[in-house]
Design a protein that fits this description.
There is one protein chain. The chain is of the alpha+beta class. It folds into three domains: 169 residues, Alpha-Beta Plaits; 75 residues, 5' to 3' exonuclease, C-terminal subdomain (DNA polymerase, domain 1, Orthogonal Bundle), CATH 1.10.150; 142 residues, Dna Ligase, domain 1. The strands form three sheets. Strands 5-6-1-7-8 form a five-stranded mixed β-sheet. Strands 9-12-10-11 form a four-stranded antiparallel β-sheet, with helices on one face. A three-stranded mixed β-sheet has the order 3-2-4. Strand 2 and strand 3 form a beta hairpin. The longest helix is centred in the middle third of the chain and has 21 residues.
Amino acid sequence: MSSTAAAKRKPCFALIDCNNFYVSCERLFRPDLRERPVIVASNNDGCAIARSAEAKALGIKMGAPLFKIDELIREHRIEVFSSNYALYADISNRVMTTIEQIVPSLEVYSIDEAFAELTGVERAVSLDTFGHELKNRILRWVGMPTCVGIAPTKTLAKLANYGAKQYPKTGGVVDLSERARQRRLLAITPVDEVWGVGRRIAARLNTMGITTALQLAECDLKTLRKQFSVVLERTARELRGESCLSLEQVPSQKKQIVVSRSFGQPVLTLDAVQSALSNFITRAAEKLRSEKQCARQLTVFMRTNPFRQNNPQYGNSATHTLSVPTQDSRELLALTRDLSERIYRPGFYYAKAGVMIGDFYAPGVFQPSLFETNKSKPNSKALMDVLDKLNRAKTGSVYFASQKKTKDWQVKRERLSPAYTTRWTDIPKVR
């Protein structure tokens, strides 16, 4: 085919989405839970952030506090797990690697979703057949159930995936290549199920009489741009089959990094708060170096529990802008300590704290003022490289003294499953 003909070929995208991802990860090594209700809890085992179909059928809502559904959990023998992010990240990587081996190009959209470009695949095999092969391979190789939506735009591919999940008779794969099929699904899909249409926008659209995805697609584009934004206009164009969003194979660089946690139990002392903050800023610095960036701005914050009305309430934050950007954990740790001392007030039970770093520069790019030098600490990069290498090796960990591994603030994970795939001692044994 000539280059001109190839350029005119209509684009084709697939959206591959894992079904109940966190729950499915927990079930991979627990086949006895396949038909039992399962919940995965948030940090500190506070509320439900993932539910199996059986748990949803019992009326358990997303975000439901576990203490409020305790009787339901006991009555129906619901299995509850603490969030096992090490397991989920590893399974996600296996899913994405499996997809990458069969599709021309891939965009990892989230931990459980990926867009693939399938332009030209239809010349060798039907798109529906390809979708089922992709779905079956992920199930065979990783054990993860998925749904696949295929369409000429990314927004329609998202919609096709919604249809694949919503209607079991599809077999988990929906191909919206044909305009007639697009219109049928658009007509029965609520507008708030369209990718990028949130509750507030959907509510405004409803007041205009736009309640379905088809009505949004057929809405006047100038009206959408004027009353909403160019983003919603682009969404409507995509619903019409006009591809406006390309595949993003290179992830965009972060503009800020936030690391924060709710404490496993309220903490009273500055020492305990600083121990938590030291761990948070060390993790943030690791992420910063992995992005190959230096940060110039640091914010530290802490607060009490706003839901404990009987306790005195307090919350505060402090921000400092460095004269020269850094990625050195030692500098960021020292600054975090200074800022936390500035905002800490005794006599309060702190429930959450965190750090945020921003104003990023590539190493060596920042132009200092006339009275500043652009020199970091001696051997800073070499030391940080060694530190990161040792911690990535997973044979042990190197900590700064200020990270004191106290249990006062650490997150509750009383129902944590084993790290089946990332820790030698947790690998299942066949007897």
